[in-house]
From TrEMBL:
Transmembrane helix listed as a keyword: yes
Keywords annotated in UniProt: Membrane, Transmembrane, Transmembrane helix
Transmembrane segments annotated in the record for this chain: 12-34
Source species of the chain: Pseudomonas peradeniyensis
Record flagged with keyword Transmembrane: yes
Domain of life: Bacteria
Protein name according to UniProt: General secretion pathway protein GspC
Amino acid sequence: MRIARLNLSLGPLLQGLGLLALIAGLVTWTSLLLQPSLDVVSQQPAEALAPSEAPAGRWFADLPLQVQIQVSGVMAGSQGAVAIVSIDGGPARAVRSGEELARGVHLVAIEGRGLVIERGGQRSRVEVPVLAQASFWGEAPRN
């Protein structure tokens, strides 16, 4: 009695395994890409959104950012006035007149009690918080 011996070579075996991996990958990605998204239940048409509300519209439009500016203080330096500001709760930094605080938001002037900010051609004023003045003994004066 003669026993049959299988003659397997490494090349065709690796090709077969590669083909199986390719088919498994195609099936997996096809099922993932063709599956409907659950968070797309109530979408508005793209025409209904204003350009500044759509993410692509905000990206490509030349509109100033809506940022929260918090002023810690102002001081006079040897090269002019400097304001200490925090943008959107970020770390405080020193800025001078004429600098851009964010895209489309410029610091126009530094005044004793506030800053003049320009956003999209419109100027606004950001007040510097004033601390209550205390006397030498630490009591606030009464009005």
